[in-house]
Amino acid sequence: MKYSNYLYRSVSFILLLSFSIACKKNLLDKLPQDQVSSEIFFLHTNDLKIYMNQFYSDAIFPVLWGIILDNPYPGGADDFNSDNQISSNAADDRLKGTRTVYSAPSLGGWDYTNIRAINYFFDNYRKCEDDFNAYKQYVGEAHFFRAWLYFRLLQQFGNVPYISVVLGTDSPELYGPQTARNIVADNILADLDSAATYLPEEKTEGGTRLDKWSALLLLTRVALYEGAWEKYHNGDAFGASAADPDKYFNQVVTAATEMMNSGKLALYNTGNPATDYYDLFKMRDYSDSKEALLWKKFSVALDITNNRNYRLEYPFGRSLTKGLADAYLCTDGKPIAVSPLFGGFNTLSDEMKNRDPRFYQTIFTPSAAWKITNMTEPWQDAYVKLNSSSEFYAPTGYVLRKTYDPDMNNHSLNYEETPAIHFRYAEALLNFAEAKAELGTITQADLDRSIGLLRARAGMPALNMAAIATDPNWEFPGLSPLLNEIRRERRVELATEGFRWPDIARWAAADELIIGKRPKGFKGAQIASAFFPVDANGFLDPFRDALPAGYGFNPARDYLDPIPPNEIILNPKLVQNPGW
Fold it and tell me: What is the pTM of this model?
């Protein structure tokens, strides 16, 4: 995939320019060759902008959607590493409990290179000769990206060394112990608070650069993650010392409330619940969108492209799960286990009847157009070729429709330029509702201004906290009906956007959702194939033979990644994560 960002190229040029100037100096007075020299850089606003451009590259700031990335490690698509999607006919190693320890830090994700680059910016940006107001945007971006990089480390490894200055090769801090995870989280949140202070409220460069609302949204994400982690991992091997989950839940509420009260943000809603959710993800430009807070632009002409539609028109083994499909409520607001409106499982057409419209806007159904490369007419049955060849293979039968546009430009090529959303306002509403519910302070008014808006866009009944229909198949029977429904709404609204594994991890929910289970699909009788494995009830069961006992996730080990052993050899004060 060619989706390196426009912005990355300009910093490469300035690096080369700096090195060229350095080479002309006396060899005894040569500038450092591994970084932009502060002697000739950081003097003007545009220098700071060019330096920050590099952090928008996909290597540092990817769009973490299962629809675009299916590399599960590190930082890949977190829906594929979950019960929402499978990426091939091979089960995920994390879920199987068969991961191995990576010796090289770059393979394991233990990498401080970009954090060092951000810290170098902080050490030097005050040399800028312009007024602070001219360049505070880029200071805000630096705070944001340092928070982003540390959050990824926190999710992978938990306790990590927190370093906020550039260290020399002999600095004792290089050989210090890990910082406690809640202190790391506090530093991340402090950076995001600073980012929100310095970044503008209005969209910058059409929403393709960071603004205040993106910083606040990430703040709600980090605080919700840490709050839930500290609550649900309390007492296990991964728990935080001096856990204080409510402190973080309150930060979610404060930041999300500011976003909700700003008057600048809103869901995309034209009043057509049959298409609005689907249409949001295939728009060509988000410059005027009040829901897309930050988005990535692509251009075929500039050779900066995205091949996600190509990947969708050929599933290549990627498909959604029955677990996700079953999560969608019926149009009466009741779960399929108790709603008289549910049409049954015999066919995909039956399943989609009277369901939350997000079902058929996320999952291909027989009436949806599915255009295959070099064919002029659309396919009317998305699953008709499931057993024809490897490129059409979809092991569960549920083929992803969300973000796919059969009328895209350059459809016959393996790349195109449909933009991708980094952050959207819907997440803030979900984070707000969950945090309020965890605090025990949520009201019906809170639900109406958060989840109620999401359901209204989909044409679904409001969530009435006093009249929640009991679902015998709730994923979390030990939790309240309200928390179960809030988590269901999150799964449905954010499906394939990279949230499912982080949610499972922070909820410590592998015992309910992963261990001993296998991903299932629709009724196998719908396709003319004798070699697709099915379970005792006739549902597609792609891992039946490979995982007869289900996933072997190890709850005493697999919630965090291993620290590469080479790092522990270099720094014996580092403590390996539990179970590794």
Answer: 0.91
